[in-house]
Design goal:
Layout (H helix, E strand, L loop, with lengths): L1 H41 L2 H4 L1 H19 L3 H24 L1
């Protein structure tokens, strides 16, 4: 009985650690996406690459919503897409 309680405590702690890792990974990806979007905006991406700019903005907005609902995995994935769109927009705006 005592061993079963120890195993249960370890499983609970492990699940908390995993959820904490997801939180920080999502937060880090959102921060990176925000920086990329700010760079795109500073480079005039809203005019030079409007599709990529709008996509990055909307993905980031959706990511923040998911993060606010404690859905960290989708938040990280959406932030990653926002960052990719912003980086594509930066490349496009540098061509023009």
């Amino acid at each position: 009985m005592k061993k079963m309680g120890s195993v249960l405590v370890i499983l609970v702690l492990f699940s908390f650690l995993l959820s904490g890792c997801s939180y920080f990974a999502a937060k880090s990806e959102i921060t990176a996406a925000e920086k990329s979007l700010a760079q795109l905006k500073a480079a005039g991406g809203d005019k030079k690459a409007p599709y990529e700019y709008c996509s990055a903005e909307k993905f980031l907005e959706a990511s923040r919503i998911e993060f606010g609902q404690n859905d960290f995995k989708p938040a990280k994935e959406l932030a990653s897409r926002a960052k990719s769109a912003a980086e594509a927009g930066l490349a496009e705006s540098k061509k023009k």
